[in-house]
Amino acid sequence: MEQDNLTAKQNDYAIFLPAISSFYATYVGKQRFDEYIPKARMPAGIPDMEQLNWLNSQNGLFPYKWSLYSAGHADLDLTRQNPKEDMVRNREAGTTMLCDSGGFQIAKGVWPGEWANPKDKNAEKKRRAVLEWQCGIATHGMTMDIPTWTCTNPEWAKASGIYSYDDAVNATKFNNEYWMHNRHGETKILNVLQGANHADADHWYETMKDYCNPDKHQRPFDGWGMGGQNMCDVHLVLRRIVNLMHDGLLESGLHDWMHFLGTSKLEWAVLLTDIQRAVRYHHNPTFTISFDCASPFLATANGQLYHSIVTESRDKWSYRMSATADNKKYSIDNRLFGDAVRQDGIHKNFEDSPITSRLKISDICYYKPGDLNKIGKEGKTSWDSFSYALLMGHNVWMHIEAVQRANRVYNGGQGPDMLLHPNDRWYDFRSVIDRVFAAKDRQKSLQIIDDHANIWERVVGTRGYTGKRAVNAHTMFNNLFEVDNPSDAEDDLNPELLEALEDSIE
Prior knowledge:
Strand 6, helix 8 and strand 7 (257-260) form a beta-alpha-beta unit. By secondary structure, the chain is an alpha/beta fold. Helix 1 packs across helix 18 (495-503) and helix 8 runs antiparallel to helix 15. The protein starts with 14 loop residues before the first strand and ends with a helix. It has helices at residues 22-31, 86-89, 103-107, 121-137, 154-160, 165-182, 198-208, 234-246, 266-282, 295-301, 337-343, 361-364, 385-411, 429-438, 442-451, 453-456, 477-480, 495-503, and strands at 15-18, 66-70, 96-100, 140-142, 188-193, 223-226, 257-260, 288-293, 304-310, 318-323, 482-483. It has two domains: 15-298, TIM Barrel (Alpha-Beta Barrel); 306-395 and 475-503, no CATH class. The longest helix has 27 residues, at 385-411. Helices cover 36% and strands 10% of the residues.
């Protein structure tokens, strides 16, 4: 079997972590225990479900050893076997799994409790379960941060007991104390930074930074998680890292990992690589930046398929998606998927993945006229539940490929429109970032950052906001992604998998 080894292609780029959907993990895990997908349903070109598992370096079609999994949709009880979790729990040795803490679920009221009250029983139970889960399976885990936007919605505030910014800070500080005193094993813990604007982000940092201070704690936290404004404002990101360096909180062997939550733009993928390289060269040679998003899974849930990658110089860099083939007439069509969607004009441009290159279009458009779906009805869509899983795998490959390709093109001297000076002169972002970290004086570095405020303002934040005007971490799907046209497909998922799919999207 020919593999596209994406691990080998990673080079020294900032690392994208696919945020694994529990819907997808269910297919990989359950197939290990029984014939969850009947042999007759498996595509002829993909007879083994492990071929869709990028964490399997031997059998995966595109081996890639990094991923993220969230406590928010996980079974936290490691004392019982759960096949749906097996892709994550019993993954190959040497893979990296960053496990989020589920702060999003707290903020949205999915995990109700009086989180600002250290004695609340519901919060205490969930806190203990999440930490034990992280220490049991994660290479890296996030502290249980409470996003500052929790209090902006009355329903969320009531469900979580977080009614103000101060409540979010105090609740997170208590959670940090719990993580500090109860962590065990080898899992690296990342100190998550929040804040909806520069002032709040600075205050949050000053409040939480000592949890990474080896002079204050026998076993301090091991790195940083960048949330809120910290993950969508390059001006603030650079300031934060400069201060971390000069505060002694970005040291080799102590604070080697920094993760950016929910970062999907290709322009940020290359800028984070520039930052990683500069910090490695000038300060910490073992420093690594990672970033995640659920885009491949979220797109599929919205009926969207990645079909092309745009990295043309002076263009908007993106992975483009649109509704794909969904017609019962294709259920008896033996053409390869890519050939069919190109020949029939469904996608003007379509780039095959290692998955779609092995699929017939009938592997996706599985239902024939008259076939009944999971709930015993004849639906309009030709997709069954497994069609979604197959397309998710394709989208994951496309997203990783897009990130790596963007870095290769950027290394070659080309760049996107976002990094183009208004007077049609390229700014060398790499040079400016290098100057920031080459300066050995804190104030000189901060001054360089401020002197180039106009170029940082051009870098649109990861959630659709620009520079200092970014105020929160949420926007609508169509503002996040390059969508050509909406899908007409209807969901045909059984209730269990539909719930897993919805829970996995943050």
